[in-house]
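#lab-general

N.A. 3:47 PM
ok so I finally got the sequence cleaned up, no stray characters, all 465 residues accounted for. can someone with queue access submit it? mine expired

B.Y. 3:52 PM
send it over

N.A. 3:53 PM
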Amino acid sequence: MENQKKKGIFYYLFLLVLIMIVIYLYRVYQTKNYNQFNLMEYMPYVSTFTRDSKVKYSRNASYKIESNQFNDAMYVKKINVKENTPYKVTCKVKTKNVVTENSVSAAGAQICIADTVEKSKSIVGTNDWQELELLFNSKNRTSVDIGFRLGGFNDNCTGTVWFSDFKVESGISNTDTNWNVACFIFPNIDVVVNAKNENKNVKLSMSQTDIQDIKDDMERFKNSCRELSKDQMTVTYDCIVINDPVTSLSYDEKNGYFINPENIESAIVPYLEKEQYDHIFVAVRLGDEIHSSDIEINDWVGLGGMDYLGIGFSNIRLPNEENNYLYKYNTFINTFPEEVFIHEFLHTLERNMEEYGYDVPNLHDYEKYGYEDERLIGQREWYQDYMRKNIKDKNGNKIGLDSIIYQLKPTKPEDFEFSIELEELKEPANIFEEIKIMISRIATNVENIKLKKEENTIGNESVGI
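B.Y. 4:20 PM
back already:
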């Protein structure tokens, strides 16, 4: 009887220890269970990735990234998508002491598509839980790598971020052909630039005539888009004058100084939150007769092809000379003053065509197809045939912008009124689902190892032959 009692106590103690070991191992497993997310870092082994069961938004442990040194780090998962379909990815995010390496930066806690510039807004500093949202169109892709990131495409961060409650939805694109355009006019700049290896403060202002010229050209831009496209697209627009000065500029060797979205983000975001725009122009003076040599500009009056949260973004630069007729309508000098607006907008359509998988002639190749930069009207004839797909190639085929491009506008919240939630980023609902995923992942890894061995065997046999 005594022995049976001892055996019973020993059994229950053994069972208790076993349960405690299982619970411990499960907790250890939970801190490193990334549910098929891959871990990516620009600087390997600098950032720490863990599942945090203490700081979390809901039932599931959050996905934590901690970077004590500047780094670009993210959780990444490949998801399958249908071509030419709008998608929305959301999550909850909490940040602590997130700091970017560069003072003007698009980095921070964000959702992104890895190896692209497609991203959500970025969050820096210390913030409690909030929702983060990435809108994108799959274009000609069948899969994308969704990243939950502490860092950025061109910058790094320090700090801590927690991600939770991932969700992905597919929507339905609005195919109307009216483009809603914003033209932000910044009459004043107050910046420090490097002029001839010396930092120099430059202050510039537009005149009221300059501002009116830009407004007049936007009206002409609206009319020309309809006319040049032969009614395949229309434009509505807002001209928004922001008198607060631009206080920072971006720089690269190709273009010199220019305005990136990050230079003016805080000024334009309040307007973008109220209205959904399909394209953004930013008009600014970056020189005058006195300061023209202080701000290095490498031969551009317009700069297109940029992007802000999926929206085409273009610079419009006023010429240095006050009496220049570039943006003024005059029957003897210039009857196409909206040309720079048309040109930079077409760069966005050109890029969209390529990203959707369509062939399109290079916008700058007008001479290659027999067009000229004509007096009074510039390259108007080229833009007209470009927008109507009426350019003849060497074989006599008509090329240019396919009419479908006028329907392919940036993804908007309205595209998800009747959205469908997908399973791609869903967390396991219970321990049994977690075990099932773990077994599936082990099986996949074993299969990959077998395939690799077979490839190596075949390779060795080929070498022997």
